[in-house]
Amino acid sequence: MERQLFKPRSRVFIAYLSLPVLWYLFVVVVPLVLAIRYSLYEWSGGPKMRFVGLSNYVQLIHDYDFWFSFKNNLIITLLCIIGQIGIAFILAAMMTTRVLKFKEFHRTVIFLPVVLSPVVIGFIWMLMYNQQIGILNWILRAIGLGSLVRPWLDDPKLVIYSVSVPLIWQYIGFYLVILMASLQSIPKEIFEAAEIDGADGFKRTIYVILPLLSDTLKVSIMLCIAGNMKVFDHIYVMTGGGPGKSSMVMAQYAYNNSFIMFKLGYGATISVGILVLSLAIILLSRKLMGGSEK
Amino acid sequence: MNIKKIAFKIGALILNILVMILSLSAIFPIVWLIYSSLKTEREFALSIASLPAHPTFENYVNAIKTAKMHIYFFNSLFITVISVILIVIFSFIVGYFFARYQFKGRTLLYTMFLAGMLIPIHALLVPLFVQFKVFGLLDRRITLIFPYVGLGLPMAIFLMENFIRDIPHEIEEAAYIDGATLTQTLFRIILPICKPIISTVVILSALSTWNEFSFALVLIKSDALKTLPVGLTNFSSQYTVKYTQLMAAITIAILPVIITYLVFNKKVIQGLVAGAVKG
């Protein structure tokens, strides 16, 4: 701020800023502090609140189901990084060639699922996966892969992969657009020079485009991790964490504890756990990737 | 040479076909859903992939009659419109003060607002539920406006502040010399200049409000106040599921978003990317 304008009096500041600030304190800051407080109590929502100190956290550390759901979050994140960013990267590389036609159409269409609500995506894929009326099994039968037909969301071994597909599918367009935006900021001469030097499709992608995009890819991976640590809506709609607990994720587990079993204290502990784990994973991966991004 | 050329052409064709298949698979589920919603349950059961032979709006009529989709629709619309207006006004004001003035507590407020982008919303569900219960704010028409505005603010403030900082100071100085008050300068002069960023903020916050699920699930109990995403889950658990009717209900929920996207797609894409990458 190199220059100061004529400065209004402080009561003008207060008049303008107090409503937004109070609003924000009321719905974000105070609850966040309270979450930490509630996590120290055993409490089912009634007037009886029993202070238990850190014992909720001790319980959380020994809670097999919580760590199992954390593992599911990690699996989903990994699949999404590979699926979303991988596919988006290949597509973005193709978008730089003259060979590919209808680029505008592809971009518009692939981005469309991004704007839809996760709940709707969950429903659409639940219908797609449906044993009797699902179009997925219908397609498999139609192309002669009838042996692959199965209850995609009811098989405990398979379900974590089945629920990942809609997540990947929904956000490919998002990463495609991010990568394309960063490719467009690169001078065209670089691609032309590479072409003249004889770098064709594959080589060009690996030696020219990949290094140029590395910073954007890092940002994308961060976004992907942050997004998948809080995944909830899709899972809630498609499986609710089931069958059994096979597709349980951390947010669903926190929701079940808080609002199905009414263990509000422990639910708050799980939420704080999610907060800490997400930040830790983000910092860790940033370190591993050599954080050159902002 | 000729063979090489032909090989290249074939390769290009294959590549185009592959990408086209991928593109179509990105919208096929949505297209399938929409055209299937125009079939009767019987026709759908008979052939799940074919186009409707005699398109009918019967499912839509039922989705409105039995599942009250129109009520959820107007609830979502109401909450979205109010929340977006408030987010725009608040973020414009806060963004302006952050961009233009050094004042006591600025750093603290700034950090507080921006840190909001890192908080996973699920950490707020339990305490907000309790807090709203204490204040008698659960299950009201205005309930959801509170968290939606609060959570929409960080990103919106960030975008506004960045934009306003690049507006030359001379504009305001001229206004002050002409005797304009702060309020006049703010709303008559700066606000119109901010149009492009305001439209980005509107798109971002409208989409996330319209699509939000967790708070709506936890803070609203009565059927008459539910929003579309919760209304949909309600629908599938309460009634014997008629698939085509569910499809009609989902279509009602997504059509406004899809139409908005098709009309303003460049602006929508820009807005979402600006929000994510800068945040």
Tell me the layout of helices and strands.
The complex is a heterodimer of chains A (294) and B (279).
Chain A: H1 10-38, E1 41-43, E2 49-51, H2 55-61, H3 64-95, H4 103-111, H5 118-129, H6 135-142, H7 159-184, H8 188-196, H9 201-229, H10 233-238, H11 250-260, H12 264-288
Helix pairs in contact in A: 3-7, 3-9, 4-7, 7-9, 9-12, 11-12
Chain B: H1 2-36, H2 41-46, H3 58-65, H4 69-100, H5 106-115, H6 122-134, H7 145-165, H8 170-177, H9 182-193, H10 195-211, H11 214-219, H12 228-238, H13 243-278
Helix pairs in contact in B: 3-13, 4-7, 4-10, 4-12, 7-10, 8-9, 10-13, 12-13
Protein name (chain B): Carbohydrate ABC transporter permease
Main location (chain B): membrane
Organism (chain B): Anaerocellum danielii
Kindly list the characteristics that best describe this protein.
heterodimer; A: 294 residues; mainly alpha; two-stranded antiparallel ribbon; 2 strands; 2% strand; globular; B: 279 residues; 77% helix; MetI-like (chain B); cell membrane (chain B)
Question: In words, what does this structure look like?
Answer:
- The complex is a heterodimer of chains A (294) and B (279).
- Chain A has 294 residues and is an all-alpha fold.
- Chain A has helices at residues 10-38, 55-61, 64-95, 103-111, 118-129, 135-142, 159-184, 188-196, 201-229, 233-238, 250-260, 264-288, and strands at residues 41-43, 49-51.
- Chain A is 69% helix and 2% strand.
- Chain A has a two-stranded antiparallel sheet with strand order 1-2.
- In chain A, a hairpin with a 5-residue loop joins strand 1 and strand 2.
- The radius of gyration of chain A is 24 Å and the shape is globular.
- The model of chain A has no long low-confidence stretch (mean pLDDT 86).
- With 279 residues, chain B is an all-alpha fold.
- Helices cover 77% and strands 0% of the residues of chain B.
- Chain B is built from 13 helices and no strands.
- In chain B, helix 4 runs antiparallel to helix 12 (228-238) and helix 12 (228-238) runs antiparallel to helix 13.
- The interface between A and B is large, with 94 and 89 residues.
- Chain B: Belongs to the binding-protein-dependent transport system permease family.
- Chain B: Residues 73-264 form the ABC transmembrane type-1 domain.
